[in-house]
Design brief:
Distance between the termini: 37 Å
CATH class of the largest domain: Mainly Alpha
CATH topology of the largest domain: Dehydroquinate synthase-like, alpha domain
Strand content: 5-15%
Helix content: 40-55%
Order of helices and strands: EHEHHEHEHHEEEEHHHHHHHHH
Number of domains: 2
CATH architecture of the largest domain: Up-down Bundle
Oligomer: single chain
Bound molecules: 5,6-dihydroxy-NADP, zinc ion
């Protein structure tokens, strides 16, 4: 394995009922005025909005609101949030929602003390030096944004979706109450499953030798997601399944705990972001289409890892099969699982045709080739997109 540093400063409070701790905990962080960031209304429908604002009031914390953060959060919304924080003297950003809300909140937190446009961070023109403190209450299991420093924002005007990660944008505190995810609809539950699995794939399919613990951590998360994903889809109020999924989502992408010392890939995420930048599709709907095709395109760089994946994660019987056959069986099992739980299989399923593939491929490699398992250039990305049609 490679040498590494690992850093994760996020305090996690996990369990049913933890959402009732938010007032007290935000007060303990020493902030008297917060920006409450949330999405399109699910937190009002579930009663969570009232539950949180009542606690803030009881703890003597003033708040201003930024409502209506879209899935694939927009730069324009982030700008609005930064202005609000500056004009209202906000001391902490409190995100209540999913990855989109949390990512927007991170962008706001980093943008407030920065003199230029926050978009500079996403275009690699500047680095975050400091940020407002951030706390989150997670309502959907998927991105891991609750315990990492990453944020992904869409600049709709330029049709770009870009990311950055910083040690300054880890949440100080994240409240993970699995009962809040009982109301997540089936399609979003499916996307969460695919996203978490994809995060593990990005870290598991690696050329780095001698990483048995990291591999087994990845395989355990994948197996746990596979088992509990279907249970949560059968019964959305299955507390055990929702709890296990929530823990998996947080472990799958939290500053690299499962991939310390491993060179990770992230090409499929880079490609998907450019698809959703143009078509505004759900992030993991894109991943469900692209990832199996990425696997087919690259597996020959280390077929043994794909064979191991087939045997250990999908329980493919290795008897009488070559490494190549096992590798392909694992990829097929992944495709079949995604299809079985209801995820799309082709860009055509989302009414996406060839029109913008070239632009997507070009934009994916804007900062250079993507991926490490097999570094991908523009022509490779274009081929994977064509395979996905
Ligand atoms: O907006 P509301 O009304 O809240 O509805 C949301 C939204 O429509 C709904 N929802 C959330 N919690 C719910 C609920 N509905 C009912 N009950 C609940 N408890 O779910 C919908 C999707 O929410 P969103 O936050 O967009 O989902 P997700 O957590 O999957 O986040 C996706 C975004 O995160 C980015 C993606 O690119 C995408 O923009 N990512 C962020 C990452 C990170 N920061 O580390 C990594 C990921 O790879 C990803 O790129
Ligand atoms: Zn993702």
């Amino acid at each position: 394995m490679n040498s590494f540093t690992f850093y994760n400063p996020t305090r996690i409070m996990f369990g049913p009922g933890m959402a009732d701790q938010v007032g007290e905990q935000v007060a303990a962080l020493g902030s008297r005025k917060v920006l409450l960031v949330f999405g399109g209304g699910s937190i009002k429908q579930t009663g969570l909005y009232d539950r949180i604002t009542e606690q803030l009031a009881a703890s003597g914390i003033a708040f201003v609101e930024l409502a209506g953060v879209d899935p694939n959060p927009r730069l324009t919304t982030v700008h609005k949030g930064i202005e609000l924080c500056r004009s209202e003297g906000v001391e902490l950003v409190l995100a209540v929602g999913g990855g989109s809300v949390i990512d927007a909140a991170k962008a706001i937190a980093a943008g407030v003390p920065y003199e230029g446009d926050v978009w500079d961070f996403y275009m690699r023109k500047a680095e975050v030096k400091r940020a407002l403190p951030l706390a989150t209450v997670l309502t959907i299991t998927a991105t891991g944004s609750e315990m990492n420093g990453n944020t992904v924002i869409t600049n709709w005007k330029e049709q770009l979706k870009k990311a950055f990660g910083s040690i300054h944008t880890f949440p100080k505190l994240s409240i993970l109450d699995p009962t809040l995810t009982f109301s997540v609809p089936a399609n979003q539950t499916v996307y969460g499953i695919v996203d978490m699995m994809s995060h593990v794939f990005e870290q598991y399919f690696s050329l780095t030798p001698n990483t048995p613990l990291q591999e087994r951590l990845c395989e355990s998360i994948l197996q746990t997601v596979i088992e509990n994903g279907e249970a949560a889809l059968r019964n959305p109020q299955d507390l055990d399944a929702r709890s296990n999924l929530m823990l998996c989502g947080t472990y799958a992408l939290n500053g690299g705990m499962i991939s310390v010392g491993v060179q990770t890939d992230w090409a499929s995420h880079g490609i998907e972001h450019e698809v959703s930048a143009i078509y505004d599709i759900a992030h993991a709907a894109g991943l469900a289409i692209i990832f199996p095709n990425w696997m087919k395109y690259v597996y020959q760089a280390r077929p043994e890892r794909f064979a191991q994946f087939a045997v250990r994660v999908w329980q493919v019987d290795p008897a009488g099969k070559s490494t190549e056959e096992l590798a392909l069986a694992g990829i097929e099992a992944t495709r079949q699982y995604f299809t079985r739980i209801g995820a799309p299989a082709t860009l055509g399923d989302l009414n996406i045709g060839e029109e913008h593939l070239e632009r997507m491929a070009k934009e994916t490699v804007r900062f250079g080739p993507v991926g490490s398992f097999k570094p991908l250039h523009e022509a490779d990305v274009l081929e994977i997109l064509r395979m996905s049609l």
